[in-house]
Design a protein that fits this description.
Blueprint lengths: L3 E7 L4 H13 L8 E7 L7 H7 L5 E5 L9 H17 L5 E5 L3 E3 L4 H14 L4 E3 L1 E2 L7 E2 L4 E2 L3 H5 L10 H4 L3 H4 L2 E3 L3 E7 L4 H4 L11 E5 L3 H6 L9
Parallel strand pairs: 1-2, 1-4, 2-3, 6-10, 11-12
Antiparallel strand pairs: 4-9, 5-12, 6-9, 7-8
């Protein structure tokens, strides 16, 4: 089976948020599914939470690994994790349908968010798309697609992941003409970089059921989780 591989990347400071997100992803699925694999990606200096791994395994196939590049700080730390993740999936999940790179400040906003993203990615992939994500007017003359995106398993090799360095955000580095010829800007993923205090009328002015968004990234507090999933246990695990 060709699966969507969801790589949830985290380190010590956002580990609790990542584990809460992982449990939320499991809880909003009504039954176990085999077409999506969750992969926990811990930074070189961070332990895995095996209780959460067992919890998520009730709904999805699960794997985990630890990155090896010893970069810290921003953007070096996230860059190293992205680089190691792209290398890992190219070596270990080369037959995946696609790879969703996920950070802990993401929130699914619909129960069928995975199906929505998979359907859109299948259409994009058929058109020779390498990367599908939310566009932002920064990181270069033509902007860039935010790193919470879906990519081909061999995206790092195609895009030149060896260019990733410690000084410029990796998703801005890999936005050259070669990649832009193969990217797809989707409304299914919404980027709210470095945001707080989520409000329904600002995010979903026509009502959530009439908006195309399935995944929102960038809220640095728990306001979006509380807004979308008001009955969920919002305590960090």
């Amino acid at each position: 089976m060709s699966r969507l591989v969801v790589c949830l990347q985290f380190y010590s400071a956002d580990r609790a948020s990542a584990m809460r997100l992982a449990r939320l992803i499991a809880d909003i699925e009504l039954s176990r599914r085999e077409d999506v694999e969750i992969i926990f990606v811990a930074r070189f200096d961070t332990d895995h939470d095996h209780e959460t791994i067992k919890y998520v395994e009730q709904k999805f196939p699960v794997s985990w690994f630890t990155t090896h590049t010893w970069w810290t700080g921003w953007p070096a730390g996230p860059n190293a994790m992205a680089k190691d993740t792209l290398e890992w999936v190219a070596a270990n999940r080369k037959n995946a349908l696609g790879v969703l790179l996920l950070e802990p400040d993401c929130v699914p906003v619909k129960t069928n968010w995975l199906d929505i993203l998979i359907d859109e990615w299948r259409i994009a992939k058929a058109a020779d798309v390498w990367i599908m994500g939310a566009w932002r007017a920064s990181g270069g003359e033509f902007g860039h697609l935010n790193g919470n995106c879906i990519v081909r398993p061999d995206f790092g090799w195609l895009a030149g992941a060896e260019q990733i360095n410690q000084h410029t955000a990796w998703d801005c580095v890999l936005n050259g003409p070669r990649v832009r010829e193969h990217w797809f800007v989707t409304e299914r993923i919404h980027n709210c970089f470095q945001s707080v205090d989520a409000k329904m009328d600002e995010l979903f002015p026509l009502g959530i059921e009439h908006q195309p968004r399935a995944l929102v990234h960038g809220y640095k507090d728990d306001s979006l989780v509380k807004l979308i999933w008001p009955s969920y246990d919002h305590a960090y695990v």
